[in-house]
Amino acid sequence: MKHIPLLFENDFCMVLNKPSGLAVQGGVGVKSSLDSILSEKFNPRPLLVHRLDKDTSGAILVAKTKEAAASFSNLFSKEGSIAKYYLGICSGIPLKKEGLISLDLEVRLKGQKSQKSKLKKSRTFFRLLSNASAQGFPYSLLELELGTGRMHQIRRHLALIGHPLLGDDKYGDFALNKKLKKTKKVNKLLLHAHRLIIPPILEIPGGLDITAPPPEYFSSWL
């Protein structure tokens, strides 16, 4: 756990500041994951209750008991129960200082061997914090809040409105990313889960409002 800062801990849970590049859960081609690291370091192993993309850094909560995991999982499954805020640096400058991106996203249906999918309503709230220009191209720092929790939702929504995240090698501006790798050493996705707000529940009687400091490579753009 040397390189995974601990942000909060009590008898029921921990909040960690996950680094970019670390998968939350194991799978095909995944050599190391947060889940496997927790399994090696703790007995009993803390349990995952929500996810972050491999390339997204920031605050992630894990439960210490099965009972706490069930309680937190139930809370995370209810839209609007937990507030999750992100910092993202995107190309260009949005026309509005704040707003709602409400665009349906294709979601793969669970348990479908034929890999069927359907469009689902998806909402991302954004607020422009600042903007600047580097080597001839404008970029913006946004605070983003998830209204729904689709896979890669923030990345996909920003790409769809023409302001992809810098360093996004899946939905981003590939030509710009290639240029930035050479000139600005941008080789990571500039998306960070910086704030997690949990209402009062049995496991956290006073509730929780915790902020995860962004990584150094991210801070240089702020």
Characterise the protein shown here.
The protein is an alpha+beta fold. The protein has one domain: Pseudouridine synthase (2-Layer Sandwich), CATH 3.30.2350.10. It is built from 5 helices and 12 strands. Strands 1, 2, 3, 4, 5, 6, 9, 10, 11 and 12 form a 10-stranded mixed sheet that branches. The protein has a two-stranded antiparallel sheet with strand order 7-8. Strand 1 and strand 2 form a beta hairpin. The longest helix is centred in the N-terminal third of the chain and has 12 residues. The mean pLDDT is 91.
Biggest sheet features: 10 strands, mixed
- Give the CATH topology: Pseudouridine synthase
- For the record, the CATH class is Alpha Beta
Quickly count the domains.
1
Average per-residue pLDDT, rounded, comes to 91
- What's the N-to-C terminus distance? 27 Å
Please identify which CATH superfamily we are dealing with.
Answer: Pseudouridine synthase
Structural key phrases:
single chain; alpha+beta; Pseudouridine synthase; two-stranded antiparallel ribbon; 12 strands; globular
Question: How is this fold's topology laid out?
Answer:
Blueprint: E1 6-9, E2 13-18, H1 34-41, E3 47-48, E4 57-63, H2 66-77, E5 83-91, E6 98-102, E7 105-108, E8 117-120, E9 123-134, E10 137-146, H3 153-160, H4 174-183, E11 191-198, E12 208-211, H5 216-219
Parallel strand pairs: 4-11
Antiparallel strand pairs: 1-2, 2-4, 3-4, 5-10, 5-11, 6-9, 7-8, 9-10, 11-12
Structure, briefly:
With 222 residues, the protein is α+β, with helices and mostly antiparallel strands. The chain is 19% helix and 34% strand.
